[in-house]
Amino acid sequence: MLLSIIVTKQMSEKIKDILESGEDIVFKHIGKLDSESVKDVFYSASRISSEAILVDIDVFSGKEIVSALQSFRISRPNTRVIIIAPERKPGDELISSIVGLGIYDIVAEVKDSDWNGIINNVLLSTPATYSQAARWHTGQFINDGKRNKERVVIEERHSGIIVIAVAGTAHGLGCTHTAFSLASFLSRLGHSVAVIEDSQRPVFSYFTNILRAKEGKVKGSYVAHGIDIFALDESKGRDEWNFDTLFREIKAGQYEYVIRDLGVLDSSRMREIYMADEAFIVASAAKWRWHECIDKFDNEYSIIFPLASKSDVDEFSFYTCIKGTPFPHCPNPFSKDNDSVILKLLDPVLPNRRRKRAFFEKLLG
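Below the sequence we write its predicted structure tokens.
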């Protein structure tokens, strides 16, 4: 089970066995929260898909935790929320408001209980129903009867993992550089990103050494600049794509975006391009290399021209009727220099954010 955990330091000692289970824990926060950080931590948790989240109510005793849980429920309606409420008794206003959110798994034992065993039993059981939580629900709600003006951020997101393929028309044009530029941009936006090597000339192992990358959160990955990097294992045969063999790791990493560095286009890689959610072809805008694009691509693909000027690309488009995007010189793929260009390129697969101001009745239930 993929599990998120938000608990106090004291509770972390009591559920030590669960915390040390390791690989199934996809998000973890240990320690008290203040009124400013409580929403940030729950927002971070909502960015990661998990089957259940354990929340120790003692991380923050103020009413903001109810609002944070409500936002989490909206973002992750299918995640089971289990509230750890040591020593709490029926009639507790805070627990009543939480039950009003449709959260019915309330674990309220004495502090010296065997919390490892209790939580394990809850995780193995079916989710609680309202009839089991009704004793907590007094019908009193925080801010009952008050209207609060809030700024609400609505994000329309693509479901599942977005796969972005990057391939070049020839070696040495900057396919790998482009892949990491895209990944770096997405990482800076706060997205969980992985880059997977599937090119004919593997360089990721060398690349991770140069970057002094550390071991990533998923087996077989390295992390640098907030990006999980999966190098091609040259000791294994090439009967399968690296992307296909890493299915279990991709699932465990809960990535929002996976970028595939496919290397130089050939017939097999063209099939992989077709299957991606978004694809970018890296090409040269030099006139003597236009033939690498003509009769091969049309405006169905986003063609990127590294080191080219706008006038170079405009001339190419005028004579070939194929649109392209100039990618200004930027030696460091992790810099922000080309963010404005990348934003336009990735716009079709980015969350659509709308802000609207509205009045909500704060009847948390």
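The longest strand covers residues 147-156.
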